[in-house]
Amino acid sequence: xxxxxxxxxxxVAIPGIALFLFVLFRTPPYWALxxxxxxxxxxxWEAVQLCCSTGINTFARVISSFLAGVVTLFIAIDHPLTLxxxxxxxxxxxxxxxxxxxxxxxxxxxAGTASLLSLYSIGFGLMGRICLQWGPWALLALxxxxxVGDSAAYFTGIxxxxxxxxxxVSPAKxxxxxxxxxxxxVAGSVLAGIIGGLPLTPLLVAGFAGGVAGVLGDxxxxxxxxxxxxxxxxxxxxxxxxxxxxFDSAVAAAPVFMTVLFLFGVS
Length: 267
What we know:
By secondary structure, the chain is mostly helical. It is built from ten helices and two strands, in the order H-H-H-H-H-H-H-E-E-H-H-H. Strands 1-2 form a two-stranded antiparallel sheet. Helix 7 packs across helix 9 (200-228), helix 7 crosses helix 10 and helix 8 packs across helix 9 (200-228). The radius of gyration is 18 Å and the shape is globular.
């Protein structure tokens, strides 16, 4: 039994997790906001390349990526102008597409890019808000949900995967990996959350619901990549692809995780 790209995954995952832990527990809160804004900027850079691989100049990519980082910051601090600012990255890329490429394939380029920019900007922004409102342990519970769930799905799928989950979208994913990942997501959420003093019941619900949302986010991004004819959104992270690949589950799980905490009245 072999585990493809395992060495590369560990080579990136270990220092990456260490960086997150350092920022969350050893620096002032604004450093976490800066981290998530930076991740959002990098994800936006990849999103523009993925959906508009030709015809968009570097200036347009810089502007739309910068605006995505700004949106993430506004969402994290719950600024009154969050909703208007949320429209800016998509509006910027729409204007650039119309000016440089015209109407041909504009619905795919504009809608695809704007959707990815919004998804990742909102997801990273909500991670920052979770950190500010519920503390670093709550955010770590969300991240552990995704990290442990992803690892459990990876190993379970390779070891026991027989029945394909959605072969047209992601041929490697199996139902066995899905359920293994779901169990890992619940375990990761509960373990990190309990250590941080969060109540058990919302952690169980958030782990389950967030695990399902994370898989959907992963499948959504896989579908976009398959349509674009690429395996990874970039080669930035050895063994993990790019920012879109690494955080597709987390940005989808973040709003679900936050909603569960709010509905259960976790303070």
